[in-house]
Amino acid sequence: MADSDLLLDIRDLRIDGKAGDDWLPIVKGVNLTLKKGEVLGLIGESGAGKSTIGLAAMGFARDGCRISGGTIDFDGVDLRKSSQDNLRRLRGKRIAYVAQSAAASFNPAHKLMEQYVEAPVRHGVMGRSEAERDAVELYRKMQLPNPEEIGFRFPHQVSGGQLQRAMTAMAMSCRPDLIIFDEPTTALDVTTQIEVLAAIRDIVEQFGTSAIYITHDLAVVAQMADRIKILLRGEEVEEADTRTMLADPQEDYTKSLWAVRSFKRSAQDAPKSEPVVSVRNVSASYGPVQVLDDVSFDIHARRTVAVVGESGSGKSTAARVITGLLPPTHGEVLFDGTPLPADYRKRTRDQLRHAQMIYQMADTALNPKLTIRKLIGRPAQMYLGLRGRKLNERIRELLHLIEMEPDEFIDRLPSELSGGQKQRIGIARALAAEPRFIICDEVTSALDQIVAEGILKLLDRLQGELNLAYMFITHDLATVKAIADDVVVMQKGRVVEQGPKEEMFRPPHHPYTDLLLSSVPEMDPDWLTNLLEERKSKDHPTSADA
Amino acid sequence: MTLVLRMIAQRLALGLLTLFVVSLLIFGATELLPGDFAEAVLGQAATPETVAAIRRELGLDQPLVLRYVDWLWGAVQFDFGSSLAQRNRAVSDLIATRLGNTLFLALYAAAMAVPLALTLGILAALWRNSLFDRVANSSALSAISFPEFFVAYILIYILAQGGWFPSMARLPAGADLGEKLYRAFLPALTLTLVVTAHMMRMTRAAIINLLASPYIEMARLKGMRPSRVIVHHALPNAIAPIVNVIAINLAYLITGVVVVEVVFVYPGLGQLMVDSVSRRDIPVVQAVALIFAAAYVLLNLTADVISTLSNPRLMHRK
């Protein structure tokens, strides 16, 4: 008999995923226990099987997956042996789910309230009007603005951070015993993330709900979980309570996870030469909406300028202006001191060649029908006129540069590569044009930390070898710390602060920079608590969800 | 709501423009037909003098542009001139009853086909890959694969030979609704069989397409029944593609049913069109073609309005 305060007891869980005609194991015999009122953090890279395990705790397997072995005991009921009807009675009522992207997980056709009351009414927990009153109460507890009214909006009328809180409120609607949080803050800006984390933690504590908190962000899980379990390729690496795990990880893999945030490039000398790219008083707009307002900054050879800010701050728009995709309404972009034509169609081939881009989603940025040879070869052919044997040699050289074995990879398709490898191909494609300046648009944010680390190191090495100037667009301040020389902080289309990294990370800051910096989760499990108290006493300006 | 009204006004204006272009095309195309009414009506007896005399009498000797402007001026006042074949009858008279018949048959078929297609499509999506799904799919496909006249003859063989329904669908003047429904049942059923497959398969595909969405997974994880997941969560988001396919099929029911009309001797617009072409009764051809074009324009407009109404992103701005 399990002890009485045990809520969830998963033994030797095995899950297979369909690959072509075969079933391959995704989860290979994981044990997991959860006591009432406890929060367990599940950590791992993508492909570690953490979401799959989270869903299995609801007796659910996605299409193309099947639970092939083990027992899932929820409060004395084996979910693997339960009928679909019985499972349905548990889901939403006693076990609830909070998805990664609330924007995608709310039905666009129905108002928030409609979706909130669905579970309590359909499961017979309470009547509709009672559920609506309860929703307003929970919206208020989740500190949503206008709790009385927000339920009567459609999902697209509500911001991402608010949706994520509304989804947590929805999960709470039947006061479940267990909530699965599947990366609930991954899609949010750091400043918004804090508010959501705080709201989730409060409400889970208040109702004594058990939770499984799935994430790849160690610092986040440190704030949320009582215990942490680390997964690697469907197997458990180790498990311990949060403080022990942070202070004294046992396994090498865990230590390597902990070490990821330690990469820091060596300090560079101050720039001597003229800037390669110079953005001068640029304003730009989409239709009537102004998105850039008098933005100026310089980028020098061998240096990396990190442009940081929340989504909507104008970071990517600045890149579009530099590449000529969006002609500015005012101001200009200089290359080596010469103004570039505003429209890319009016630029010479050489001007185009020297400004290359690497994109966030390597998945969509590489043509899936072309082999690596074609993908990298095309810019080399187009910009440099390489043909035949010379082209072939150049492709092989580029693959060596990005540390991929030419013989193995040259004739593969993008679909045959991992996420990190695809991003390396994206880098090689940019290098193929032999540019002097590369824009990196959130190049590591879709990658796991260890893989991201490898990409950052590669970019750093290439910069030294090839004299490159980088503009690094990111919302992740850990990346900025790792790779930037200069930092440009943007908010609502304006540059609020800029300067060398050392100065930027040293107080005093502009209040917005301060807000950004202080919002980056730290590994200290007391960080969130301390921060919230500090902010309460200081009554900080907050820009999120404006 | 103002958004929708503005859209309707815009689309109507565009529709009028379309009709204008269509009228040009129709006029041009009828000019390209070999021979004209004078030659067709005189047949063997045509001598250059008699042909010229008839042409002069009917105004066919006027220059093309003049005739077009004259015709267009009449058309905007719903006066399509008089038929060449039946000289004392106005084209609008000739068309009025036929148009009524055609609309009656189209509505009759749609009233059976649309609910049937939606129900089958939703059930097929709900029980996808089941026996029901496969049977519904393959029977719908076979119905659409046979030529219409073949389906019609099969139905006549089964239902008319047995004496249940008349195989001649001619509507007597002054028949009451029940009588009309009874007489037009076989052509309506034939058309239902022909158009259901397309709409049903689109309904099924549009719903299944959405089933991988995170919000569908969310509905399942909230413990909702499969039927509710499909009807309440998937269907509202699938309305736009479904409505568009329905509109295309309704347009087909109005404009493309000549074969069925012929088989069942049903006095609709399609038959009138074909007869008039062979008689070179150009005013009638032009008027009918314009009506067909207007049907397409109006049905597509309706489909777009419904699609817009079904999309909260368009109806409720931020």
Q: From the helix content, strand content and strand pairing of chain B, which structural class follows?
A: mainly alpha
What's the end-to-end separation of chain A, in Å? 52 Å
What percent of the residues of chain B sit in helical stretches (DSSP H or I)?
Answer: over 70%
Radius of gyration of chain A from CA coordinates: 25 Å
Which features would summarize this protein structure in a list?
heterodimer; A: Rossmann fold; Rossmann fold; 2 domains; B: 318 residues; mainly alpha; MetI-like fold; 16 helices
Architecture overview:
The complex is a heterodimer of chains A (546) and B (318). With 546 residues, chain A is α/β, with parallel strands linked by helices. Chain A has two domains: 6-105 and 178-261, 3-Layer(aba) Sandwich (Rossmann fold), CATH 3.40.50; 277-521, 3-Layer(aba) Sandwich (Rossmann fold), CATH 3.40.50.300. In chain A, 39% of the residues lie in helices and 25% in strands. In chain A, strands 6-7-8-3-9-10 form a six-stranded mixed β-sheet, with helices on both faces. Chain A has a six-stranded mixed β-sheet with strand order 16-17-18-13-19-20, sandwiched between helices. In chain A, strands 2-1-4-5 form a four-stranded antiparallel β-sheet, covered by helices on one side. By secondary structure, chain B is mainly α. Chain B contains 16 helices and no strands. The interface between A and B is medium-sized, with 31 and 22 residues.
